[in-house]
Amino acid sequence: MLANCRTSWRVVGYGLLAVASAAGSRAEAEEPPPPSSQTASDPAAERGREALLFRGYLSPEWGEEVYRKVAELWDGKAPDPDADPEAYAEAFASRYGLHPAPYPNGGLPMGLRRSENLKTGRVGFQIDCLACHGGSIGGRSYVGLGNTQLDLIGLYRDFYRADGRPLFFTGFTVNTVRGSVNAGQMAAILISLRNPDLSRRLFPLPHGAKFPETDVPAWWLLKHKRTMYYDGRTDARSVRSIMQFLLGEKTREQFEELEPTFADILAYLNRIEAPSYPFPIDDGLAARGREVFEEHCARCHGSYGEDRSYPNRIIELDVIGTDPARALAGTEALVSHFNASWFGETYPVDEVLTGYQAPPLDGIWATAPYLHNGSVPTLAQLLDSSTRPGRFRRPPSTGFEHYDTEAVGWRVEVLDPVSPEQAARDSDRSIFDASRFGLGNQGHTFGDLLSDDDRRTVIEYLKTL
Ligand code: HEC
Ligand code: HEC
């Protein structure tokens, strides 16, 4: 588990382990953001957009120099940050799997934030929600598209090394492959270091939860959901739940002060729209596909268009059959500890463990790879389970040159299977291997029953959502 740091628990924020100090922080001063047409009519959402994109909430985790110093760890392959800052920024973003910010961010990619410790005046870097929740596709960045390129453990290792500090945390897998993150275990560790009143514990509460790494869900789905997270056990209106990462440093009083700000952020998340499919769609095929979808899929995923409806169903593990590790991770001990705390006061986590929520499918064309663990590269493979590759190399970017408009999703390099022991030892994080913990690509076999022709029409229909 967390390494032996007995004096002050170095606690987990996004930066995973920041020294436990209750210092405030402030993001670098920015141009005042232009009001967004998407949120202009909703003052709470407009405040939330500013609060999300233009403010930092955690003290810097790494010193200011790390942005340049990490390049010393790149085997001499770095462009000169002074002579060619743009080439440097690009190399930096691509190395760690970050994307250009579609809002002013001081020249930094989405997810990386310059911030200042208000107590000490120290300036440095932190990562924020957009490291995981900011993605790109076809050369455009989107706030709320899950980041399928992020290499969080690679970023942590380099940043701490460049900052001249050891990386303290061990004992859980942050990610074995790019684009996966273990947000669940981070949150579980954070809450285990607090008492129900949010005072700090000397030793973590044992909770037995073992979360796997997962994909990151798109924020534009949230407005349609009554419950959130892959297991659907948390009310989608829970503001406190989206504040968990602040447990890295905030006190109970600070949480209470910040709650209205995060209510605004949630209002903003609920205004985000899915991007439309950018290539031609065969309308006739899609219309036929809609009928197949209504017959075979809508009971779980809902109906779309003018009179849309979404049943918000959470499907039992033995029915859905996908990798159970994420659903099983929410142990009774963890849930009851969370529910006894400030976080569970307003919207407690459901005590019943069922399985996985059938998500709304808006913008599904943009969110490959599929399933909660990103184990299936395309819709065609999702709908024909016999064709799913067990081991593959993820594409090196989210450019359309790697996108498959027929199968809908990512063109991957399929690799020969290796033994699970070998797969567990892999250090190349461009490789996905379904034999690793939580990454199984089985289940969701509903498409297997369809004819090839029906599958083709459903895929065409899914492009319209
Ligand atoms: C380290 C990566 C990471 C960071 C940082 C992060 N998230 Fe997430 N977020 C995830 C993952 C992964 C999930 C899915 C968790 C699950 O269900 O297991 C998620 C789920 C969510 C959901 C639920 C979405 C749904 O439809 O179920 C919301 C809302 C959310 N995050 C908001 C935020 C906000 C706001 C922040 C910043 C304060 C944030 N997240 C920071 C990775 C991250
Ligand atoms: C019995 C309910 C059920 C039926 C029927 C069903 N699904 Fe699903 N579907 C789910 C659940 C639950 C998940 C999430 C599983 C997971 O992530 O482990 C899912 C996931 C998906 C995903 C991936 C979503 C993502 O963001 O990665 C797609 C696409 C999808 N289903 C399409 C379909 C289509 C098309 C059909 C009809 C042929 C269908 N489903 C039938 C329950 C169902």
Automatic annotation (TrEMBL):
Positions of the Cytochrome c domain: 116-250, 284-465
Keyword Iron: yes
Region (Disordered): 25-45
Single GO MF annotation: cytochrome-c peroxidase activity
InterPro entries xref list: Cyt_c-like_dom (IPR009056), Cyt_c-like_dom_sf (IPR036909), Cytochrome_c_Peroxidase/MauG (IPR051395)
Any matching Pfam family: RoxA-like_Cyt-c
The entry's keywords: Heme, Iron, Metal-binding
PANTHER family per UniProt: BLR7738 PROTEIN (PTHR30600:SF9), CYTOCHROME C PEROXIDASE-RELATED (PTHR30600)
Protein name in the entry: C-type cytochrome
Source organism per UniProt: Tautonia sociabilis
